[in-house]
Amino acid sequence: MRSFRLLAYLAGTVAATLVAVLACVTAGPAAAQAPGAAAASVAGRVLDAATGAPLGGALVVVEGTDLGVLADSTGRYLLLRVPAGPQVLRAERIGHAVTRVSIVVPVSGLLTQEIRMAVHALQVPGLIVTADPLGRARGELGTASVIEREAIRHQTATSLAGLLELVPGVVLQPPGLDNVQQFSLRSAPTSAGIEILGASAANLASAGTLIVLDGIPLSNNANLQTLGPRGEIPLQSSAGGGIDLRRIPAALIDRVEVIRGVPSARYGDLTQGAVIVDTRAGAVEADVALRRDRQTTEVSSIGGRGVGAAHTGTALFNLAHTRLAPGLREDEAYRLAGQFAHRLRLGPAEGPAGEDRLTLDTRLDLFQVFQDTPERPEIAPDRLARNRDSGLRLAQRGRLRLAGGTLVEFSAAVDRQQQRSFSEVLASRPALPFTDRLTEGRAIGRFIGGSYPARVDLEGDPWLLFGRLEANDRRSWLGFEHEARAGLELRREWNSGPGYQFDMEFPPQVTFTGVQGFDRPRRYDEVPPLATSALYLDDRLARVLPGDMHLMVQAGVRLDVLHAGTHWLSGSRHAVPQPRLNLQLAPRPWLRLRAGAGRTSKYPTLADLHPAPQYHDIVNVNWFANDPGERLAVLTTSILDTRNPELRQAVAEKREAGVEIGARGAVLALVAFRDRIDGGIGLRRTPRFLLREHFQLSDSTLGTGRPPQILEPATHADTIPVLLLQPANTLTLESRGYEMTLALPELRRLNTRLEIQGAWLATRLESHGFEVGTYFSDFQLNPRRARTPYWEGSTQTGERALLNYRLIHQQPAVGLVVTATVQHVAHEVRQAIAGTDTLAFAGYITRTGEMVPVPAAERAREEYRDLHLPRRNILTDATQVPPDWMLSLQVSKTLPLEGRLSFYAFNALDRVGRYARPGFTQRIYPPLRFGLEVTFLPGALLR
Amino acid sequence: MREGTRFPALALGFLLLAAPLAGQQGAPAVAGTGWMLGWTPLAPVADLPRGVAGALPAGSGLLAPAPRFGIFWTGGNPAGLPWEAATSYGELGVRATAVEGEFRRPLDAPAAEARGSAGLGWQPVGEHAAMIGHAAFDEVHTNPGTHTLQLEPYASTPFVITDSTATPHQTARARLDGAAGWRRGALGFGVSVAYEAVDASTAATRVPRFGRASRPAAALGIGHELAGGAARLGAYARWNRTNATLRTLASPGVTLVTRINGFAAPTVAVVAPGVIPPWYHRRSEAEGRAAGVTAAGSARGWAWAAHTEVGVLAERSWTREEVDPPTDLWRARSAALGGALQRGLGGALLTLRGGGVGLAGEAHMAALDSVIYRATEAALHGAAELRWQPAGSAWQALAGAGVAYERRDRGDTIDNVLRTRLESLTRQVRGEVAYALTGDLSLAAGAALTDYVPRGSIPIPRNYPAAIRPLVGAETAFYSTRNLAHTGSVAALWRVRGAIALRLTGHYESREPSAGPVRHEMTPEGTRTQWGLSLAAVIQ
Q: Which end of chain B is less enclosed by CB atoms within 10 A, N or C?
């Protein structure tokens, strides 16, 4: 029944979208504006806030649309066919701060709006220093948080992760390059009381949060910097989750759109949402920003200039360094990032005013993030690690305005990274029979052991080739204003690195049970590429209904295809049609009701599709003598193929509903959501068995100086149960919650505003596989044990309620802005759910790898007494963390010569966190961190 | 049992001089600019830190603005700001200072270097309001370090956390101060806020220590103009709080750590390889509340200002990280009175300032159910300054003199073994001359001489318990030693363009014990020198 409803929903959406898009494309450019279509004109002047002088050449755009116009020499502007309803005007001009003005556009007629621009943003009254609660991502109707440049400058952040703290439900973290920074939208931390093999909720959620940088997605799908399920040696890597956001400096970002709700069909390879990042580019006067606190030093610079009317070049640079544990260790991280941007504008076009016929954007990005944990010989000898991620990306985007107004956009990018991870630990092992055989079969081994530095080198070179072609058109048809688009997207990802390397004499990872064995080196350039393609259609419709109600609908469908081979013509391995629908109804200018539903999908990664083979080194003979010359080790190597031909994309169903109320300068936005990912990729255990041959020895007398020989044939053989670990779609991740944003009107006499953000999030990660507990190793090696129990998969849950209070006090006359953020963690609990009593087992595994389920009613029988074992190493008690709060502070002030000074303090009141009490663990807050940031324009010094 | 020192006959009058950088023997922090920061709500409440020499009010050089007066500048009442900041001023600069030498207190670092930047400015906002702001950020490196990372180890509270190591450490300190005032008719309202943060840690040690603290502060004031502007009367309330955390870790290895917690018995921790390292945690939260009355005005050619303030301080400290831990308490109350006079005398400007503070406090330890320590302290100070510029001359001159008297009676109530009764008299003379080479360039040079003369009674240092003898014994020996400080300074002011000028200042100070009647076995020897260099852009 559920499938039928889904199918009907899908068919309906596809049909509606196709009809709308085809109608738009086939309708003539002179399509008359239908009755009820919502459009008016907006006109006014752009003035200098201080002098009142007109500002010619200012670009005025309607946010979220492609409407834009340049003000004439008297500062006048005119925007035609502006969609009715709440909109935001944005004005940009060199030498002035970006200014945004909220307006409500009538159904028809002319709205006059004056825009006042100040030289320095801190002198603009009503400065927005937080995420805009009414903001919409460009071309999107789903719930979004829009973080503008001024909000970015008031958020103390070293990387993109710090900016995303402006999104409801995100915990504040100190600025810096501390450890790997991944971001999970709409997800709460879950219990660690039980391990779910292969993935965590945080990894799944961060991998499913799409990051788009300057129109091109970033991808972690070809990141193979992982040691797999054993993970005996720690690595500082983002493999398995989302990308490490340290690579994107906050100082170079111009705007961030966080699509928390249902994204349009334009965006794929995601389950949680999308973060759209635009870096600063354009003809801007060169500025330099310096930041320093005890742990982090950062310098950023950006400058751009136009060459003639057609060319604009921009260069961005960032260098940051963080001491990760000053006073304690010498660990450090640094980042070098830069970008060169070039824009070519050819025009003008016949379309909307201010548009060029052709715009070509070329971007060259480079970055390097290095984290080093050096050895401390006197404390922890032979323990060190370092990780270096660097990358180079060349991207080309173009916008071509065709006659008739159709806009064609195309993007192409090649993204090449180099990932180097090294880790060393002091391994201490007994003498173990060892073989380095790389093929199946029996071999004479040797004994290794003792204490030695176990070193691993992981050298990966991920590549991403991306291309997209998209057509956009705006038409009035059937009483609706349409913004339709259709696109094709192609991706190919691979890894050309030398791979996982180590000295075979000193294997870093050993699971020696006499059954399993040693890791083998593996080349990454032998892993086949991942090829995917996508088609999408999307239409955004708007009209005014009777009663002056504004209706907007965004409907689209996307088809993400995971190809069977390594190229885009190789046929489909798995295709996921993804209908998406967002509705917005504004019955009154101050009220918006919204709802959205849709499906998204996430591709498997290269590590999921092509996991390393599983080696088993079964010991046939383990003859150990004091004299090395008399020792004999015979091992049979079996290689199990861990690839899973049935592996598919993870599919997410997203639902949300919300309401936005805006009146008298106050805004309240409430959203309820539920996201469910089915087929999340974890590790599935499949019981198998291997045969072990036993031999007699020819001469085992000690003191001969020679090893004994085995006598063929084998005397007998027995079976050894093993578990094949394969990536499989075994996980379900469900998140639900409520988000609230309340922005109170400015208290004008005090120049103070208060904004409150809140979120309650509940996340549940469920494993649909089975688990074998801690008894399996003994079962493998003990032939007298005929069977061992297995249990149903377990579940991790987590809940968190957060409230953020942001107080903004501004004194435009002196260019002063004080931003105080109080984060109140009102509720936090995590719990693992799993049966732990002696009758909780679901069945048993035999020595030939057969799984035999036992009905619940029969488990207490005497015949199963040997299976009545408690499930060990599981903590199912709820972990509660006491509620507490923390304050962060930023004070910004203009300086002479167009400079700016900012002071910031994270955990400003030095709260240490609540102490533990019965039923609660201790809440520990990060340390007090504070510093200064100075921004200045070198050119102003010379003027 | 006790030894004593006596005041010698009052020394000859001293000449001159300027650039007082008294105190700051330990960490030469970039502080505010003398009187320009006297209004900050961060000023201690019911606390009288023991400086290196007596608490003399800071002066300012000839190339800096002359001291201002009023209920804001003198009394710290922000309601006075719109009347008293009618013109704009700003400066932004960087500074570097260094101090070294063995004539020091035991918790002062043998050597320290500091680098910092600071900015300060005020301006009227419209016709009826004014604002002032100050920001400073500095980093101090000590090598070797001291036995404590406590913010102010010589405050009135007896709870000072030290340990036996003195490894190099680094301290970062940031501070913000701001005030705004509005005037409506004869009434004025004002608010001032401030915040200071400190983060310190040791480096290259097996026993790393971490200290951090935050200090928010605020004041609210009201003022009223009387007699057509001839006088202003005001009242204010002030609050500040200090949250401080100290933590000591021990890295695995053979390490011996001795900790001294106030006057409790020292504890010794032995850390062996493979053992989970122990750690020590101390949290302190102090809250000060004060209220005061301020008045200012002018009569018969004199500008005058006066203020009085009463304050209470409550400090709670604990070691165990648990809900409702056993808590050590320090409670103190204080009363302060101060005033200033200023008058123009032809081409000269005469400024007189004076004041005093009295404090009484008592401490309770969590483990004991009674008062274990008491302190009764008082400080008085007075200073005079004369600035003179003959009409039509390129020369300016400044002469000043000051005197400070302190009396401190501190001691435990258990066996009275730690009791000290010390009085001191500090006298200072200073002078400075400046010459305008051109219309845009001025040079100045100055010097000062400060004489610290103690008297009173202290325990014989060798009678202290062995664990605290190097710390408490050496401290009392230092404070009972007469010493002399020589200070010199040079400055240049270059008017770059319009209202913007650059000011370069250098100063040097040397302090050493002078001939006295008694030398204790723990009296520090040698000298203590300090130098500093600052460059500031001044916008006037």
A: N
